[in-house]
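Entry 14. Ran structure prediction on the chain below.
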Amino acid sequence: MLPSQTPTPVSPENTADTAAIARSAATAASPVESATTAMSEFVARHVGPRPANIQAMLAALGYDSLADLMRATVPESIRLTQGLSLEAGLSETEALAKLRAIANQNQVWRSYLGLGYANTITPPMIQRNVLENPGWYTQYTPYQPEISQGRLEALLNYQTMVTDLTGLEIANASLLDEGTAAAEAMTLSFNVRKQKAVKTFWVSADCHPQTIAVVQTRALPLGIEVVVGDHRNFDGATPVFGALVSYPATDGAVYDYTDFIEQVHAQRALVTVAADLLSLTLLKSPGEMGADIAVGNTQRFGVPLGFGGPHAAYFATLNQYARKLPGRLVGVSKDQYDKPALRLALQTREQHIRRDAATSNICTAQVLLAVIAGMYAVYHGPQGLQAIATRIHQHTVTLATALQQSGFELGTEPYFDTLRVHVGDRQADILTRAASQHINLRQLDAETLVIALDETTTAADVRDLIAVFTEQTTLPPAVVSPLVDHPLQRTSAFLTHPVFNTYHSETEMLRYMHRLQSRDLSLTAAMIPLGSCTMKLNATAEMVPITWPEFGQIHPFAPLAQAQGYLQLFQQLEAWLCEITGFSGISLQPNAGAQGEYAGLLVIREYHQQRGQSDRTVCLIPESAHGTNPASAVMAGMKVVGVKCDSQGNVDLVDLRTKAEKHSAQLAALMVTYPSTHGVFEEGIREICDIVHTHGGQVYMDGANMNAQVGLCRPADFGADVCHLNLHKTFCIPHGGGGPGVGPIGVQAHLVPYLPGHSLVETGAGQQAIGAVTAAPWGSASILPISWMYIAMMGAAGLQHATEVAILNANYIAHRLAEHYDILYTGKHGLIAHECIIDLRPFRKSAGVTVEDVAKRLIDYGFHPPTMSWPVAGTLMIEPTESESQAELDRFCDAMIAIRGEIEAIATGQIDAEQNPLKLAPHTAEDLVAAWQRPYDRRQAIFPTRWTQENKFWPAVNRIDQAYGDRNLMCACLPMDAYRD
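Output, C-alpha cells:
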C-alpha cells in the first residue's frame, strides 16, 4: 500500500464580497500607496481567493498585507509610485453596454471585396458548441496528449481535409494567416534549396497584395530578393530557389500552372500555390499540377471575417519536407495497450528546442479556428462543401452573363467566385450606386472593379449587383459554367474518410463534438498550472462580444468609414496598454507572441538602419530565454550571442558586460524576459538595460510574464525599448487549445516611427514604418474586444489587485511545496514572482523517477501538468494565476505532496521501481476493468483522493509511445476500425 494521501483540510470559501475585496486592497495598497481601492464587482469574480483566504495565505508566508509582500518581492528601484491612470472598473452589464455602443459605430455592409477573405455562415451548433464553449476555448496547447485526444482528433481531421483538397501528402495543424504561411513557404524553399548561392524568390503579381507584402517583409532581413512578375512570361533566365502563385488569382482568373511548375522544377526550385480551399472542391488540386507546397486561409470554412482575424491558415507539402514543416503537426501513435493515440509529432522541430538553429519562430497556431474549419468540413461533408461551392459559382456565372450581355468586358476565364470587370469611365457612377445599396466592391485600378461572391450570397444579392452595374434587375437565363468539361475541373475524390461522411444530422454532430470535448482537460475541469503560460479565467462577459455581427462580419479591407467602432476600440486599447506599460506607442498588428518578438526586432533593426548603423546585427540573449527569442532574432537577420545566467538564474552581469563590450560596435539588441524565465524579479534589471544602452543597443523585453507587472511596475520605466504583450496570457484572450494569440508590441517614443504599416490600409504608420508582418492591418482584430472588456471591468485598482494575488498564489504554492521539493530559484527575500520552478532531478537518481513520470501522475489527480523541463531540464514550472481559489491551490499542493510520498516509497523499496503508479501513469478506464496484475493498489492508482472519486477526469488513453509515432509517421485520419480494435 502507498502512504496515506488524505488531502489537507482547507478553509471554506467565503461568499463573493466586493466590499471585502476592496477593504482587503485598501489594507494592502501595494507599492502604490496612493492607488484607489474602488473596485468593480467583476474583480471579485475574476480573482479566485476571497479576502479571508488572502489573509490566511499571507499569514502562512509571514506577511501582514499584500503591500508588505509586494515590497519584499518587487525591487524598490522599479516600483510604481502612483496608480495607473485608468478609469474605475465597470460591471459586466456596464462594460457590455459601453462596448455595444462602440460596436454600433461599425457598419455591416455587403462586402464583395475578396482578397482571400469571404463572408461565411458559421453553423449555429459549431458557434455555440465550439466557438462559444469554454470546454474548447480554455484548453492549452496539446503537449500532454493523454488529456488532449479530442482536440488532437479535431486537428487531425483538419489536416486530412487540407491534404485531401490540396492533393498533397502532409499538412500542419494551422498557421497564423495566409501571408505568414506564404512567407513560411518561402523560407522552407530557401532552406532546402540545392543551389545555396541562389537567393531569389519569384512571386506572381496575381497573388493577393497583402500576401506579397508579408513575403517581402520576411525576405528583407534574410537577404532574399523577391521578384514580382507574370507567370505567363516566366522564362527561367533568372535562377530562383522558389516561386509563389495564386489559384485562383487575386482578380479571379483560374490558371493551369502545370507548365509553369515544370519550368521552375527545371531549376531544382520549389513551387508554392496559394489556393482557395473551397474552390478546390471544383478545381483540379495543386498537387495534381505538381506543386510542392500549398498555402492559404481556411476562414471561409465557417470562421467569421472579424476585420481580419483570427483565422487558421493551412500549409501542405510533400512528405520529404515533413521535418522542415513550420508549426505543429498532429500524428498517430499508440499507448501501452496498443490503442491508437494522437500526439504532436516530430516535436524536435519546436523552436524552444532548436533555438537559433530554428528555421521558423512559429509558436502559436490557430487551433480553435482550425477546429472550427475542420468541424465545418465534418458537418457539411464532401457533398455539402461541393454544393456550397457550386452555388457560389453558379451565382458568379449568372452575374458574369448579365454583365457580358450589358457590354462589360470581363477578365480571363475560367473563374470560380470572383470576376474582374472593366468599367472604364463608369466606375464612379457604379460605386455611387453600390454605396447606396451598402455594397462594397474592390477597385483594382481606375477603370477596373473586382467582385467576389461567397456563401452568404443569394439570388437577391445577385440582382442587386446587376442593378448596380446595369440599372436592370432581371436575371439572365441559366448558362453552362465555363468549368464544365474544362481541364481544370476537379475529377479526383476528396474527404472520403468516414468522419466526413457520418455526422450530418445535428444529433450525431452534437454527440461527436461533445465526445471530443470530453477527452480534453480544460479550465472547466481544473487548474492548468503552466509556468509562463498564464492560464487564467476567460470570463464569459469578455467572450460575448466576439460573435456580435458588428465585430464578426466586417471585411478587413472594408472602408475605414465603416469600421469607426473598431478604430475607437483600437485607440482605447492602445492607450490603456501604453499606460499599463509606460510606452509611447503600440502596434496591435502581430497576431501571436512570437510574431510580436519578430516585429519588435524588425523595428529595432530599422531604427539602426535609419541612423546609418546597419552593421548593428548582434543580439544578446540570456541562456534562460524563451526558445522563440533566438529563432526570432535569426529571422530578423541578427546574429545570436548567448549570455550566461548565474546560480540564482539571473542574467550574469559580468558576462553581459563582457559580451556587450566585445560586440559594442555591432550590438543591436538584448532580449530579456522580466520577471525572469526562472520566475524571479531580478534586482539588476535597470543595470542590465543601462549596460546595453551604453553600447548603443536597444532592450527588447519579452512580455510573457507581464502578469506579474501590471500595476506594480512598467517595462518602459525601467529601461525596455520594446516589449511584446501576450494578450492571450495577461489580458485574458483564451489560449483556444494552442491559439489564437495576439502579440502587440509597445515601443518607446524614438521607435514609434518604425511600427508596422500596411500596403492596403492607412493605419497611421509613417514613412519609416517597417512592412506588414500580418496579412490584416490590425491582426486578429475580432478578439481584441476580449482584452478591452477585461481592462474595462478590472479598472486600475482591479488590475493591480490581480497582479498582487497572482504573486501571492505563486508564493503560497512555493511555500507549501518547499518542505517536499527544492524550489530552484528565489529572489532577494526568498520569494518568487508569479511562477516557481521545482527541481525533480534528484529523484531520477534516488527512485528512477523522471519529470515526465510526475507530470503524468498529476493527471491521475485531476490536473493538467505544469510546464515540463523548461527552462531547466528535469523541472516543473508552476504558475497558478490570480484566478485560482485557495481550495484549488491546496488541492494541487496536496497532490504534489502525495506524489512526493509515492516517490519516497519507490526510493525506499516499498513500491516496485518499474511497476509503480508513476511509471504507469496516467491510468484510464481501461485500467479500471482490465485484469490487474500490478504490485500496487488499483483504487490508489485511479482514485488517489476523495475529490477524484467524485470528479474523476478520465484520460482517453494511457501513456503514449512518442518514439513509435515518429518512427511510423502518420498524420491523417485512420480508418474507424483502427479505434474500435
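The first strand starts at residue 110 and ends at 112. Will compare against last week's run tomorrow.
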